[in-house]
Design brief:
The structure is a single chain. The protein folds into three domains: 14-103, no CATH class; 108-144; 147-214, no CATH class. It has helices spanning 5-24, 35-72, 76-103, 109-144, 148-163, 166-169, 173-184, 186-210. It is built from eight helices and no strands. The longest helix is centred in the first third of the chain and has 38 residues, at 35-72. The protein starts with a helix and ends in a 9-residue tail after the last helix. The protein is mainly α.
Length: 219
């Protein structure tokens, strides 16, 4: 069923306004939930269900795409590994959930083993690749554009790499202090700036949807 544009816009704006007002007027002076609070929770729970279904649809679509590659033979090895990993993780996760439900105690032993012994090492390896890429980018930047900012970037990368080695960090007292300052001041400030930018962008997008300027729901 496809809604007409005015109806879909009205539904989206109405639900958004109710959820927004529910955060400000969701409870009375006695702490009891109001109608707005109840509706807010209802809509949010529905959004969680829809998001979960969307995730399942995405997993099914991903599996179908890799199964098609396996049948066609193009990149079949990587697709086969992906499908097998998905199936094994799904079976183990379901088994852990069933055992947790039957025993009444949180277990998830095998799922935790997968995350600690497979996913975590892979993520660590990706971080190592990122470090190498940043180092290479710093050297290329110095060779192509030597200015103050490129020198600062290369200096920060060098200090962080050197002081990340425990044996060297113990012998480089002042440089280790510089690393602590970099991690606590510029790095934290940059991360907060990114979070503020994401928050402002989210607020702006929400306002544009509420007033009907953006219509990602197909209206």
């Amino acid at each position: 069923m496809k809604f007409r544009a005015p109806l879909s816009v009205a539904i989206a704006i109405g639900v958004g306004i109710i959820v927004l007002l529910g955060y400000f007027f969701g409870a009375n002076s006695a702490g009891q939930p109001t109608i707005l609070g109840i509706l807010r929770d209802y809509f949010l729970q529905g959004a969680v269900v829809v998001a979960g279904m969307a995730l399942l649809v995405g997993v099914f679509n991903l599996t179908s795409a890799h199964a098609k590659k396996i049948r066609q033979g193009g990149g079949a090895l990587y697709s086969l590994v992906t499908v097998l990993a998905l199936a094994i993780t799904l079976v183990i996760g379901t088994f852990d959930l069933v055992m947790t439900y039957l025993s009444g105690e949180p277990g998830l032993t095998w799922t935790r083993w997968i995350f600690e012994n497979i996913q975590l090492p892979i993520e660590t390896s990706l971080m190592a690749v990122l470090v190498v890429s940043l180092t290479y980018a710093a050297t290329r930047l110095l060779s192509r554009r030597l200015n103050f900012m490129s020198a600062v970037f290369a200096g920060f990368v060098f200090i962080l790499l050197v002081t990340s080695i425990p044996a060297l960090a113990a012998q480089l007292g002042p440089i280790a202090d510089i690393r602590s300052w970099i991690m606590s001041v510029p790095a934290v400030g940059g991360a907060r700036g990114l979070l503020l930018g994401v928050a402002l962008g989210t607020i702006a997008t929400g306002i544009r949807i509420l007033v009907g300027v953006d219509r990602p729901y197909g209206g």
